[in-house]
Write a structure and sequence with these properties.
By secondary structure, this protein is mainly α. The protein has 10 helices and no strands. The chain is globular and about 45 Å long.
C-alpha cells in the first residue's frame, strides 16, 4: 500500500511540475515569470495575454489535477479488467489523495522552475472533481459568487478552499475526506498569503469590467 502511495505521489509530482502557464506564455513570446504578478498561473496569463491563453492554461491545469487524482482509479480498473492478481491495496481514495497532493506540490514547487510555481487552485478543482465532486461543485459556485461581487480572483479562490471542509462536515462525509479537505483549505490559504496581505492593504489586483 505504502509503495503504491509513493508511486502515485511521485507520478503526480512530475505531472504537476509541468507548468502550462510558462509553456503557453512562451508560445506567445512572453516570459510569464517576468510579467504581471510574476506568478506562473492561469490568472496572471489571462491578465497579461488575455482570455484565450488564460482559459487554456486554466483548463490544462484542471486536467492535470483530474489526471493526478484519477490515475489510481484508472489503474485499478485496468488491473481488474485484465484479471491480474496484483490489485492495488487499501482505499482508492487514499491513493487518489496521494496523486493529487503530489500534483499540487509539483505545481507549486516545480522541479523544472527551481521549485517555484503557481497556487494550484485549478489543479485542486480538477482533482476534487474525482475525489469530492459535491463539495467542489459547491465551492465552484461560491467562487463564482464571490468573484462577481468583488472581482478579486484571490478572494474567490480562498473562499472556495475554506468551503471544502465546511461542505464535507455538513454533508456528513467520512473523517478521511473531512481532514483532507481541511488540509487543502489550509494549503490554499498558505499559498495565497501574499494575496491576503495585499487584500488587507487594498493593493490587490482585481479584474475590472471594461467599458
Amino acid at each position: 500500500m505504502f509503495a503504491a502511495i509513493g508511486i502515485f505521489a511521485l507520478i503526480g509530482y512530475l505531472l504537476g511540475s509541468v507548468n502550462f502557464a510558462v509553456l503557453v506564455a512562451k508560445k506567445h513570446g512572453v516570459d510569464i515569470l517576468k510579467e504581471g504578478s510574476g506568478n506562473p498561473g492561469a490568472t496572471n496569463v489571462k491578465r497579461v495575454l488575455g482570455k484565450g491563453p488564460g482559459n487554456l492554461v486554466f483548463a490544462l491545469d484542471v486536467l492535470k489535477g483530474f489526471v493526478g487524482a484519477g490515475l489510481p482509479t484508472l489503474v485499478g480498473y485496468v488491473i481488474a479488467t485484465q484479471s491480474i492478481t496484483l490489485v492495488i491495496q487499501g482505499d482508492v481514495f487514499i491513493h487518489g489523495v496521494a496523486g493529487l497532493v503530489g500534483t499540487l506540490l509539483g505545481h507549486c514547487f516545480s522541479c523544472f522552475l527551481k521549485f517555484k510555481g503557481g497556487k494550484g487552485v485549478a489543479s485542486t478543482i480538477g482533482g476534487l472533481v474525482v475525489l469530492l465532486p459535491v463539495p467542489i461543485l459547491i465551492g465552484a459556485t461560491l467562487w463564482g459568487l464571490v468573484f462577481l461581487a468583488s472581482r478579486y480572483v484571490s478572494l474567490a479562490s480562498i473562499a472556495l478552499g475554506v468551503s471544502l471542509p465546511v461542505s464535507c462536515f455538513f454533508l456528513k462525509y467520512g473523517q478521511p475526506q473531512f481532514w483532507f479537505a481541511g488540509v487543502l483549505a489550509a494549503f490554499n490559504v498558505w499559498t495565497h498569503r501574499s494575496n491576503i496581505g495585499r487584500l488587507l492593504t487594498g493593493t490587490e489586483s482585481r479584474f475590472v469590467k471594461k467599458a
